[in-house]
Amino acid sequence: MIARLLVQAWLLGAPAAASDVSSLRTFAVASPRPALCRPARQIEESQLWTRTRGGVAERYCALLGFGYARLTSAPKEALDFAEAASALYPEQPEPTVLAGRARLRMGEWEPAFAALSAAVGAKSRPLGDVAALREFGILAQLTSHLTAAAEAYRSLVPRVAFTEDPTLIRVSVIEAAAVLALNGAAGLADASLYLTDARRQPPVPGLDDLATAFLALCLDRAGSSDQAQVLIRATDLGWGLERFLTRRERARLGNGPEAAGAGTLPVEFFERAPVLVDGELHAAIAYAAFGRDPRLARAHLQAYLQTPGGKGPFKAWAEHLLATLPRSGPR
Predict the structure, then answer these.
(1) Which ranges constitute the DSSP H helices of 106-183?
(2) Which of 226, 164, 223, 153 minimizes the C-alpha distance to 195?
(3) Which listed residue, of 29, 115, 268, 318, carries a Cα 20 to 30 Å from 40's Cα?
(4) Mean pLDDT computed over every residue of the chain
(5) pLDDT-derived band of residue 14, with 50, 70 and 90 as boundaries?
(6) What is the distance between the alpha carbons of residues 230 and 212, in angstroms, rounded to a whole number?
(7) What per-residue string of b and e applies to 268-291 under the rule 16 or more CB within 10 Å gives b?
(8) What is the tens place of the pLDDT at every residue in 38-77?
(9) How far is CA 177 from the centre of its chain?
């Protein structure tokens, strides 16, 4: 409510009170700063960026600040702020990026992809906005634009490595590997390289075993089965990976109407956990469990073959694994 009242005041051209301007600090730091909203001198970087311009530009920057601050908790409000900002400066890409990210959180994949596709790579945007680039990659794979997704992740991985957020780095690398692995031998090689490098970095609790499982999966698919098995035997993988399953993936493992309706369940977006190409988590769990828990491996291989990925380039790989799976006992 306070945010809306402040925005209304700016839109009407009313002067901002000192307390109102002060409250903007929290909102402004949550957003990437477009060129129009950056301080005039580097020494002023710690000051409120909306002070550097006046009038319409100040209201525009305030709208973006509020929009980014509401992005996670109230994406519909963030979309409203983005549209209001766009009305002030229609040629600027930042409101379109904010709108796309808001629509992603609202489950509107196609409009979100269209918005980010048009604006996320604009030359005037900050190169360090890795969150928007990651979300573009997610949207590209959710809407089956896998070439665009691969290009986005190839741009993202080197950039995100410079952030101070190890969770975002590891999540981005795992997502990138899941996309690139579908792009033939070269994609598998790049995915393996990304994951190998990630495993050399300091541990990221909760994500290391998933990265290891995907690296083993990539190596096996690329024909390096001995290396893959060394990784699997050195780690305790299998049931623990199921904590990453989404509602759709869990439903697919069920029986009867629940499994049949899995494809109709909405895809879930996570800011702090991987959003993977549909089916790839089933494949990773199946391979990790192959020699330890044939029943678990069988369930996930069967689920994988129901997904679009299971009908793609690794269908024969999954069918071979399923055919050679022992009924019980170790591999």
Answers:
(1) 109-119, 130-142, 146-160, 166-180
(2) 153
(3) 115
(4) 86
(5) very low
(6) 11
(7) ebeeebbbbbbbbbbbbbbbbbbb
(8) 765 544 443 444 454 558 888 999 999 999 999 999 999 9
(9) 12
